[in-house]
Amino acid sequence: MLRRSQVACVCLLGLLGLLGLQAGFLVSARAQPAAAGLDLAGIKYPPSVRVGNQALRLNGAGIRYRFVVKVYTAGLYLAAPATTPEAVLAAPGPKRLHVVMLRDIDASELGRLFTRGMQDNSPREEFAKSIPGTLRMADIFSAKKRLKEGENFSVDWVPGEGTQVLVNGRPQGEPIKEPEFFQALMRIWLGANPADSALKESLLGAPPARPVTNPGQQ
């Protein structure tokens, strides 16, 4: 007859094995939608793109809601899957965040809200280093004046080059060199106070869902 401690050990190993199988299933279920690409409100996010001569995979995508209104879709592309904000920010290689508008919006107002989102989610010293890039981004959106439904912008990070902002696929000036700018920008969606908590989870690979929003940010 097995001793009580042996029985407990066998039960514990069985439980750990079951949890391992469950965890593996959850990881597969979490990654599966992005692996095949996604269609959100009629906007198609392909399973892969090329940035900086490197193939990136769709990590996750979702819809930004403000109250019950769909504002835009956003998709995150990385070289390898990441399920936490820390893993996304620490990941080496190129990265892309791609946003497609689902309604018309004043571009200057969007730029101001992005700036506030960066400030609210970044350490003070990091945000201070990102100010030159933040001003550049504000100028880009001010020049655009209005982003219409169906228009898009991308933010690409390429090591050694910096952050390239593209509007409707066209680069807007030279890349922004400060790495702190891209980190601060990503925290708008992935920080402790994200624009939309459900969108944050979707970008990290969870299936897109109706979010609980922070109505103060875009």
Total strands: 11
Topology-level CATH name of the largest domain = Chalcone isomerase
- Percent of sequence in beta strands: 25-35%
Residue windows where pLDDT falls under 50 for at least 5 positions: 1-32, 211-218
Look at the helices and sheets and give the structural class: alpha+beta
- What is the distance, rounded to the nearest whole angstrom, between the alpha carbons of the first and last residues? 64 Å
Number of domains: 2
Query: Which bin fits the share of residues in helices?
Result: 40-55%
Overall geometric form: globular
The sequence of SSEs as H and E is HEEEEEHEEHHEEEEHH
Largest sheet, spatial ordering of strands: 3-4-5-6-9-10-11
The CATH architecture of the largest domain can be given as 3-Layer(bba) Sandwich
Could you give the topology of this structure?
Blueprint: H1 4-35, E1 38-40, E2 43-45, E3 48-51, E4 54-66, E5 69-78, H2 85-90, E6 95-101, E7 105-106, H3 107-121, H4 124-144, E8 146-147, E9 152-158, E10 162-167, E11 170-171, H5 179-190, H6 197-203
Antiparallel strand pairs: 1-2, 3-4, 4-5, 5-6, 6-9, 7-8, 9-10, 10-11
Helix pairs in contact: 3-4, 3-5, 4-5
